[in-house]
Amino acid sequence: QQDEGSLDELLGNQLRDPRWEVRLAVIRALASIRSTRAIEPLLVALETETGRLQDEAERTLRSLTGKSFNRSVELWKRWWAEAAPTFTLAAPQPATTEVEDPDGPR
Prior knowledge:
- By secondary structure, the chain is mainly alpha-helical.
- It contains 5 helices and no strands.
- Helix 3 packs antiparallel against helix 4 (about 50-65) and helix 3 (about 40-50) runs antiparallel to helix 5 (about 75-85).
- It is globular.
- The chain starts with a helix and ends in a 23-residue tail after the last helix.
């Protein structure tokens, strides 16, 4: 339990790092950790970041929750306020890679 709290604190602090590369790494770490405690820091990132980092935060939220509110911080927060008490993570989705058929469509 204490280790998990320490991890939360560390990741939360790193989301305020001035270097975008560090913040991106934290968002990706939150995606791989797959914890409900990642939702609130990701909502903060969605609200405070722009561009690529905001996209990554939204993608991670979608992956963890199975929901899609795009970049609407208001909709995400409203949903989380209602869902948080009983929320369970969405099942992980396998990574998809699109491979082009060399023979074209069939």
